[in-house]
């Protein structure tokens, strides 16, 4: 079974995240500045280091790993909704290493931008709030 609700595309913002910025924090600040509470995100670029998470489904906790090396942002995809009344960016990244291999996970603070080009889409529609989901232990959309 799936659940859904209608959304309507509104503004689209295209831009860069400043060199040296924290990727997740800057994208979250951007959403606050542009009043994006429902949206989608994509980005490419490069990072100097990254912190990504893996959700252990049995333990119901995130394990975070910091990879302290320059990498490409091969793909960042994410969405924006509300958690505790403020915009929350949920993004996953695939990162490319020097040898061409890839690593990826749930984007966390501690990811330092070398260069980043993003596209942020704002939608209108009913507010989407994250609340605790018992089957997964995650803050998921209440629909
Ligand atoms: Zn995630």
Distance between the termini: 13 Å
In percent, how much strand structure appears in the residues? Answer: over 45%
Measured as a percent range, the helix fraction is: under 10%
- Average predicted local confidence, pLDDT: 98
Number of helices: 1
Compose a concise summary of this entry.
The chain is mainly beta and 143 residues long. It has one helix and nine strands, in the order βαββββββββ.
Characterization of this structure:
This protein has about 140 residues and is mainly beta. About 10% of the residues lie in helices and about 60% in strands. The strands form two sheets. Strands 1, 2, 3, 4, 5, 6 and 7 form a seven-stranded antiparallel beta sheet that branches. The chain has a two-stranded antiparallel ribbon with strand order 8-9. Strand 2 (about 40-55) and strand 3 (about 60-65) form a beta hairpin. The chain is globular. The structure holds zinc ion (ZN).
Features of the shown structure:
143 residues; mainly beta; seven-stranded antiparallel beta sheet; two-stranded antiparallel ribbon; globular; binds zinc ion
Blueprint of the fold:
Elements: E1 7-17, H1 23-33, E2 39-56, E3 61-67, E4 71-83, E5 86-96, E6 102-107, E7 112-125, E8 130-133, E9 138-141
Antiparallel strand pairs: 1-7, 2-3, 2-4, 2-6, 2-7, 4-5, 5-6, 8-9
The structure holds zinc ion.
């Amino acid at each position: 079974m799936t659940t859904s609700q209608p959304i309507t595309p509104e503004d689209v913002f295209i831009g860069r995240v400043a060199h040296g910025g924290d990727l997740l924090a800057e994208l979250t600040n951007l959403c606050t500045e542009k009043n994006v509470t429902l949206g989608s995100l994509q980005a490419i670029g490069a990072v100097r280091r990254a912190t990504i998470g893996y959700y252990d489904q049995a333990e119901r906790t995130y394990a975070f790993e910091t990879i302290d090396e320059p990498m490409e942002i091969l793909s960042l995809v994410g969405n924006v909704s509300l958690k505790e009344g403020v915009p929350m960016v949920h993004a996953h990244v695939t990162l490319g290493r020097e040898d061409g291999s890839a690593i990826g996970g749930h984007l966390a603070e501690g990811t330092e931008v070398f260069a980043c080009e993003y596209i942020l889409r704002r939608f209108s529609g009913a507010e989407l709030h994250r609340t605790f989901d018992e089957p997964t232990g995650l803050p998921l959309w209440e629909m």
